[in-house]
Write a structure and sequence with these properties.
The complex is a heterodimer of chains A (about 325) and B (about 100). Chain A has about 325 residues and is an all-alpha fold. Chain A is about 65% helix and about 0% strand. Chain B has a 3-stranded antiparallel β-sheet, covered by helices on one side. In chain B, a hairpin with a 6-residue loop joins strand 1 (about 10-15) and strand 2 (about 25-30). Chain B is built from 2 helices and 3 strands, in the order ββαβα. The complex binds fe (ii) ion (FE2) (2 copies). The site of one fe (ii) ion has 5 residues of chain A, from helix 7 and helix 8.
Amino acid sequence: MYTTDLRTAREKASDEAKAAKKKVVDDPALLKAFQARIDNDEVIEAKDLMPEAYRATLTRQISQHAHSEIVGMLPEGNWIGRAPTLRRKLILLAKVQDEAGHGLYLYSAAETLGTSRAEMVDQLLYGSAKYSTIFNYPTINWADIGAIGWLVDGAAITNQIPLQRCSYGPYARAMVRVCKEESFHQRQGYELITVMARGSAEQQAMAQDALDRWWWPSLMMFGPHDSDSIHGHQSAKWKIKRFSNDELRQRFIDATVSQAEAIGLRIPDPELKWNEKTEHYDIGPIDWEEFWAVVKGFGPCNRERLEARRRAHEEGAWVREAAAAYARKQSERQAAE
Amino acid sequence: MNDSMNTDWELFEVFLRAKNGLNHKHVGSVHAADTTMAIGVARDLYTRRNEGESIWVIASKDITASDPDNSDALFEPAKDKIYRHPTFYEITKEVKNM
Ligand SMILES: [Fe+2]
Ligand SMILES: [Fe+2]
């Protein structure tokens, strides 16, 4: 997900070693008092005393979430100029603009923890910061825009709804705004793909093709199975993460299968089956090798995405400098008057 | 690290009045080169769905906040003054509304 820990085992170990070297080891008394506040369902605000590990976990998670929103504009932005009707173009523009907004709400929330925005952006562009694997897949036909809204935003909503009650106030508040805006994202995508699924044979084939390509990567968004993710436990204790990867993934699958059926599309999983006993859908195995390859930079579009972000940042440098110079001049003029 | 390591524009806090008759309420923050730009960015960011009719921005550094460590000293004294609330007083049953 936008928020699952995407560090490899080696990156985790190196972060921990760095923290130990800088002696940012939390005082056990502080940890205990802090845990008591969390257990008491208190909301933590920016200026409150908090363990450094809580601060570091949230900074990483919120900035990664912000990066995902920003990079997430690229696959959809690819189709703004080619939207088939003005109506679809307006919708897509509004949606992509919302995603930019989500990125900004989230950067603001992360900044309250003491890392500057410039530093976070730098970590994305030139460092080792991660963003959701899903945005490293290409959008190759128009139905992909429908599949993204329906599946990718759908998965994001599943993940973000419980984050509205996250223990860290600024993050929780950002999520409230984001969730309010997300539901239109999913509905417009589902509407788009519905129109195509009910269209000509060629359009139907495009809709099915989009679902075939986006289904598994969407399920991977929720991150590794609970049995394989080591870091979920502490986040759960701190009420940053209230449901596990597998719980959220299951929730998404259960909701989505009937939506596909309703418009005559087939989920590309021969092992998909309703389980009477658990009252959930069972699915076939997820290709985790593909997931980790994308995390490590070998997805179909990793390089292209980062290059696009770097180019936008570097080509915009003169605008930022000009605005800063103008502001400086204005304030000097004011001071002289 | 790359040479494009940049510095941020100033941080501003944003307050919105949803409509006349209501208070301005804090909604978040934006980076901008100056106040004019801060209003413009806040408008794009926080009022895409008619959320406001008026925007205030103020440089975050100009806000003075109380220290959470002093919370007890500041706010504890108000907690036991229940006689400041109308529910503290018993009114005879014959009087239905007051
Ligand atoms: Fe979003
Ligand atoms: Fe979205």
